[in-house]
Every structure is written in structure tokens, then in C-alpha cells.
Amino acid sequence: MRIILMLIKKEFLQVFRSPLLMSILIVAPMVQFILFPFTADYEIKVLDIAFIDNDNSTLSRQLIEEFSSSTHFRSKGMIDSKSYADQLMKADKIDFLVEIPLNFEKNVMGQQGTTIAITANAINTVKAGIGCGYVQTVIGDYLKETAENSGMSAFSDNAQLFTTNIYWYNEQMNYKNLIVPGILVILVTLIGAYVTALNLVREKEIGTIEQINVTPIRKWQFLLGKMIPFWILGMAEFIMGLFLMKLIFSITVQGSIPVLLTITAIYLFVMLGLGFFISAVAENQLQAMFIVFFLFIVFVLLSGLFTPTEGMPEWAKFINYLNPMSFYMDVIKKMVLKGCEFSDVKIQTITLSVMAVILNTAAILSYKESSK
Amino acid sequence: MQSIVAKDLTKQFGTFTAVNHINFEVEKGEIFGFLGANGAGKTTAIKMMSGLLLPTSGDALIGGYSIRTESKQIKKHIGYMSQRFSLYNDLTVFENMQLFGTVYGIPPKELKQRINNSLEELMLLDKKNSLVASIPLGWKQKLAFATAILHRPEIVFLDEPTSGVDPIVRREFWKLIYQAAAQGITIFVTTHYMDEAEYCHRISIMSDGCLKLIGTPDELKQQMGVNSIEEVFVKFVNR
Q1: What does the buried/exposed string (b/e) look like for A177-206 if buried means 16 or more CB atoms within 10 Å of the residue's CB?
Q2: Is residue A284, in this structure, part of any structural domain at all?
Q3: From the candidates A9, A15, A211, A217, which should be mutated to test the interface with B, based on the most B CB atoms within 10 A?
Q4: Chain A environment of B99 (Cβ under 8 Å)
Q5: What is the CATH number of the domain that holds A73?
Q6: FRET partner for A312 with CA separation of 20 to 30 A, picked from A50, A270, B91, B205?
Q7: Would you state the pLDDT for residue A166?
């Protein structure tokens, strides 16, 4: 016990004396929290829009006017031909083209239904999809208003259905609410796997591990002496992340914090085990970095942070069963945004626990005090 | 009583034989010099005897324990100083000694006492709280030696402990070695300095993984009909 405490003390002394590591531990989470959510924002602020008005009526002009008053759109004015619109779109001058058909006013007033063509630049599918929604909303709102003003109560009977969307757990459809908890996951992963793997390989590289290996120290004592300090650092980092999340984005944890902390603690052990396993395999810091980096990218892409896991092909879903990050990401989303109970994340917790045991066993087995 | 008994100790890396059936014995309290050209297999032999490397065949008894089956026991009874300085540069002198002393199970109070005594002997007391990175190489080597014998091992392995340090520090270092030997600690030391070889009670010369010569410095000089160990070495290696 005294040996392990001594090793923990040694590790903390070294961490606090390393300006680089300290700045990584303190500055990195802040930068990630402040920068990342804004760059990964799916909300579209300004869309450039142009119109072809074949009707040239009061109603069509009013509709076009409606777009100008919306903060989401910047009107690029009227266009004569589709070919010119094509040129504009190619030059990235416009994102959307709204084409109002001939007899638009007549058909609307006569309640005969009409078709407005919306053309979107779909190079950026997200922008196109969300933008189309905005355009439809503007048109829909306008028609509804017109109908009410002119007393055409029957307007809605005419197969005209106005939908209202309510997004659960993320009512403003704010992408930050999704990405910010994701950053928590990335933070914990980086401390767990990256920092520990590099730390241990560094001891190999500078030869201090040899001096440790000739002592009667046991493998498990040495690994615990490494693990506990980095586990504490990881938990501290996570708690700091929760505070930053509240402070900057006003996101509070909806579920139980003790449960969240417990699962985070388990996830950290998974990552620590992975880090140690990698450090046993890698010969130098460069190799360790490449391995961690490769795994990290795979983990993140499959984790469901950027794209929902449900939409992934079967083989990717299968790989995800081996991806600890996807389980933890799921837990974080459920606990932070949905306010789930422990019973809702039981399977994830069990899976992570099993992974922790397997990886740490592998780490202990692969750590060699003496070589062959 | 023998501190070290090597029996046909052999280490192969693939097809390359680094250490080839070496046999020797070292008495308790003896200063045993292990000489050889670069790449002769000295470090490999030391690593096997200190439990860092498993032998391919043969065995060695260190303090009566087999390196094949009882390396855990061996580790309690030996000290080791690597060719490469391997204390923690980002810990202070005291913290390093405290760490390794604790690892060897020295009780806290006694450990403090021992560290203070040891630093006093080394005249390093004023550097007690300095980071190891900040002290000169010669002192680092003395510190590494003091740390390696802090737990009073039966045997200490020193792998080129004086390479790269100035002659004054080398002389001081050998004073420390003599002091330790006087306390009954067996010293197993490799070196490239032939004057240092003369300080040893007995020396052996290794070449291409084999132990070619073994005896007291005087015996070897007589045997080869020369006046210094340096001549013995040159004559031998050129042969």
C-alpha cells in the first residue's frame, strides 16, 4: 500500500512539474469547449436566395417580400431565366431559387392548389435540407396568413396541411446540445488513452522503467500506481467539463449525476487499460501516438457524435459493439440530455465494465518486467 | 560463500549469440570487474543476472537464487545501475531516493535517516531538494550508486558507471565502491577504463560473447607477460 501511495505521489509530482502536460490538461478542455461547438454548428444563419416570378402578381410579390423580411434569407433579387440561376448557383452567389408559377395568385385565390419550385444547392446536403425547411416555413406561414386575412377559412380543408415540429430533448434543434456532451466524451477519452499511453512509453524510452523493473515492485502495483493518478486526473477533467458546459452553454445534466460519474469512472478504466495496452505494444512515443490517433478517429466517427449510429451500415454497427466510445457516447447523451435513469443505461454500463476488465487484464499480461 | 554463480549462461537473439556459455563465480564482498570490447555481451550478461532478461539456456545463482525461477527473490537482494542514467530527472534528489527506498520496503523513518546519511557522505546534502535534471553528470552517477545501495543489497550490478565523468569524480566513485565492498556488498562492475580494472579484486575479459580470461589483475598481467591491464586487454582483443 505504501508503495502504491509513493508511486501515486511520484506521478502527481511529475505531472504538476510538466508545464506541457499541465497546459494540455487545463487549456485543452477550455479551447475545445469554446471553439468546437461553434465550428460544428449546423444552424444556418444566412441563405442567399433568388426568385423567378412567372406570375408577377400582388400575391407573388408579397411572398417575395416576405423572404426579405426573414432574418435567415438574403434576397438576391429577381432573375429572368433558369440558365442565369444556374450560373449564379455555380458561382456560389445563391443557395436557393424559388420559382413562382404562372397563375399563382389566381390558383391560390381560387383555392385550386399550386406548385412552387424550390431549387437548392445540395453540395452541402445539411444546408440544403435545413434551408428547404426554412423556405417551406416562410411560404407556409405567408399563405396561412393570407388565407386568414381574406377570410378563406376553407383553405386548410383543401388538403393543405400545416405541420408543426416539436423536437424532444433538444427543443431548439440546437446542435450545441449534441456536440457539447460529445466533447466531454472526447476529453475523457484523451486523458484516459492518450496521456497514459504516452506517459508509460516515455518511461520506456528514457529508461527509467528499467530501474523500476529491477526492483521487487509487482506489475499490478506499478500499473495501479500509474492508473490511479490518471484516473483522478480524468475524473477532475470530466467534472471541470461539466462546469464549463453549464457555464458556457447553460446545459445541465438532466439525469443523476452520481450515476453519470460512476459510468464515467468505468469508462475511464476502459481507456486507461487501452492506453496501457498500447504502451506495452508500442516501442516509442511516436508509435503510441499513431496507434492511439488511429483508434481515436475510428472511435469518434463510429461513436454517433457526428452522424447517428442508426444510419450506419450493418458492418459498422457490428464494429460499434467493440467501440467503447459509442456506448459511452450513448450514456452521455441519455444522461445529460434525456435525463435517463440508471436502468436505461444498464446494458451500456455492463458492456463498459466487461471491456474494462478485458483491456486491463490484457495490459497487465502484456506488460513485461523481463523480456525474452 | 559465493554471491554469483554463472553456469553456462547463454543468450541468443535470433541467430546471434550475445552471451555464449559463460561460467564464473564471484565471492561475497568481492569487486569483480567485467571487461570487454563494445558489443562483447557485457550488458546482456548483466541484464540477465539482474532479472531484466531471461537466459536462452544455462542459469545463474544470484545470492543463491536462480535467475530462471526466483527472479522475484533476486530483485530484493540486488541493486542495479544502468549504463544509461535512469533516475527521474523531474524529481528531486530526495524524491528519487525516497521513491526507490520505499519500493524496497525501507520503513519511512529509517529511510529518511539513510537518505540523509548517504547524502552527507556524498556531500550532496545541499542538493537534497534540487531537481535531478539540474545537477552535473558526475553527481548524478554518484547519486544513482547511492540509490542503488540504499536498501543494502547483497550484490550491486554497475553497468559502466563512470562513463563520461571526469577523473576526479571517477576516483571519488571508486572510493564509494570500496566503501560498499567493505560493508560486504558484492560489486559486479563493467568498465572501459583499464585503470579502473586495476582497482578490482578480480577481473574477467569477455569477447564475442565468451569469457576468455579470468583472474586477479596481477595474475593476468603475469600470464600475458605484460605490465598493465591495458596491454592485457589490447593484446587479448587483437589476438
Answers
A1: bbbbbbbbbbbbbbbbbbbbbbbbbbbbbe
A2: yes
A3: A211
A4: 6-7, 10
A5: 3.40.1710.10
A6: A270
A7: 57
Nearest CA distance, B188 vs chain A (angstrom): 15
What pLDDT was estimated at residue A109?
79
pLDDT of residue A170: 55
Q: How far apart are CA B114 and CA B124, in angstroms?
A: 13
Q: Could you tell me if A72 and A153 lie in one domain?
A: yes
- Mutation target to probe the B interface, by most B beta carbons within 10 A, among A14, A202, A208 is A208
CB contact A16 to B (< 8 Å) = no
What is the C-alpha separation between A291 and A201, in angstroms, rounded? 12
- Do A216 and A345 lie in a common domain? yes
Answer for the pair B80, B155: CB distance below 8 angstroms, yes or no: no
Measured in whole angstroms, the distance separating CA A236 from the mean position of its chain's CA atoms is 21
Task: Give me the sign of the Cα torsion angle A360, A219, A199, B107.
Answer: positive
Which residue segment(s) compose the domain that A119 sits in?
42-169
Spatial distance between the Cα atoms of A31 and A38, rounded to a whole number of angstroms: 11
**To the nearest whole angstrom, how far is the Cα of A286 from the nearest Cα of chain B?**
21
The answer to whether residues B187 and B181 touch, using CB atoms and an 8 Å cutoff, is yes
Q: Which residues of B152-169 are buried (b: 16+ CB within 10 A; e: fewer)?
A: ebbbbbbbbbbeebeeeb
pLDDT at position A45 over 90 = no
Whether residue A198 sits in one domain with residue A123? no
pLDDT digits 0-9 by tens, B119-164: 998 888 999 999 999 999 989 999 999 999 999 999 999 999 988 8
In this complex, do B103 and A216 lie within 8 Å of one another by their Cβ atoms? yes
Q: For chain A, what is the mean pLDDT?
A: 84
Q: Which residue has the higher pLDDT, A28 or A268?
A: A268
Which residues of chain B are modeled with pLDDT < 50?
Answer: none
Total structural domains within chain A: 2
pLDDT at B18: 92
- CA angle, A144 as apex, A143 and A150 as ends, to 5°? 85
- Same domain as A84, residue A22: no
Clarify whether residues A273 and A153 are in a common domain: no
Of A169, A184, A217, which residue sits at a domain end? A169
If you write DSSP's letter for every residue of A228-260 in order, what string do you get?
HHHHHHHHHHHHHHHHHHHHHH-----S-HHHH
Predicted-complex ipTM score:
0.89
CA pair distance B167, A42, nearest whole angstrom? 70
The residues on B that touch A, with CB distances below 8 Å, are 50-54, 71-72, 75-76, 78, 80, 82, 84-91, 95, 98-100, 102-105, 108, 131
Rg (CA), chain B: 18
- Burial, A8: exposed, middle or buried (Cβ in 10 Å; 0-12, 13-18, 19+)? middle
Q: Higher-confidence residue: B118 or A88?
A: B118
- Any domain includes A372: no
Query: pLDDT tens digits for A234-244?
Result: 999 999 999 98
Domains of chain B (ranges, CATH numbers): 2-238 (3.40.50.300)
The pLDDT of residue A259 is 93
Domain shared by A329 and A236, yes or no: yes
